Amino acid sequence: MVNDRQSLDLTTFARAQKGGGVEWRFSPAPVPYPDAVTAMETRATAIADGKAAELVWLLEHPPLYTSGTSGKEGDLLDPRFPLFTTGRGGQVTYHGPGQRVAYVMLDLKRRRPDVRAYVAGLEEWIIRTLAAFNVRGERREDRVGVWVRRPDKGAGYEDKIAAIGVRLRRWVSFHGIAINVEPELSHFSAIVPCGVVDPRYGVTSLVDLGLPMTIEDVDVALRQAFEEVFGATAAHLPEATA
Fold first, then answer.
1. What is the pLDDT of residues 58-76, one digit of tens each?
2. Of 144, 64, 58, 35, whose CA–CA distance to 105 is shortest?
3. Quick check: helix, strand or coil at residue 62?
C-alpha cells in the first residue's frame, strides 16, 4: 500500500516564531496524568487566545493506562495500574517511567490547519529522532504510531516504538507523542496496545533494541528533529506547569 503521508509537504509547519520560537520545557519528576491534562487544556486555551507561546512539554508519568476516543471496553486486560479516559485520539496505551512523553501545543490555524498533515509531521519528528540512534522508524497506514521491523523475530514481525495521540481545540493541538526509551515492557501485556491484536506486532524500546540510551540522550535528538520539522525553539526552560 502506498503511504500517502510520505508525500505530504511538511515544511509548511516550520515557520519563524515570534519571541524566539516554541517554548521547550521539561518536568524532572513524574507528572500525574490528570494534572498534565489540566495544564495542557489551560495552555491550549491561552495559545488560542494569543496570550501564550506555543509549547513542547517533556515529561514522564507514573505507571498508568489511558484510553482515547476509539478505546474499547476489552482493551484493558489486567487493571494493574489506573486507567484514565481521555479526549485524545486512539485507543488504549501505557505510560510510565522510562518513556519520554512530549506534549505538543501548537497553533495549527496559524501554521497549517490540516490534521492529517500534522499527524504526519509528528511521525516525521519521531522518525528523525530515532534516526539519530541509527534506528529506522516507519509509519504504517493501517496502524498508528512508529514501527521498527524485527527480522530477528521472524518474517513480517514489527514492534511499535512510539505512540501518537492528539486532540485539537480551536486548532491548537495538545497531547502528543511517547517514545519508549527504557520502560517496563511487560506493562504493555495488560492491554491491547492501540487495539493491535496481531501477534506479529509487539512493543519495543531503544534499550530493548540493544541501544543503552537515556532520556536525556533522546531529549537532545527530539529537539534537533523538532526544529527540522516544526521550526525554531526558544531557550530550554526548567520545571514548569504548562
1. 999 999 999 888 777 778 8
2. 58
3. coil
Structure pTM? 0.90
pLDDT digits (tens, 9 = 90+) for 8-37: 666 667 665 555 689 999 999 999 999 999
Contacts by 6-13, CB closer than 8 A, 24 or more apart = 6/139, 8/116, 8/117, 8/120, 9/117, 10/117, 10/120, 10/121, 10/124, 10/229, 12/111, 12/112, 12/117, 13/106, 13/111, 13/112, 13/117, 13/118, 13/121, 13/229, 13/230, 13/231
In angstroms, the CA 145 to CA 122 distance is: 9
Residue of 177, 194, 203, 209 with catalytic role: 194
Q: How far is Cα 240 from Cα 116, in angstroms, rounded to an integer? A: 30
Catalytic residue check, 117 = no
Cell of 61: 508519568
Contact 177, 192 (CB under 8 A): no
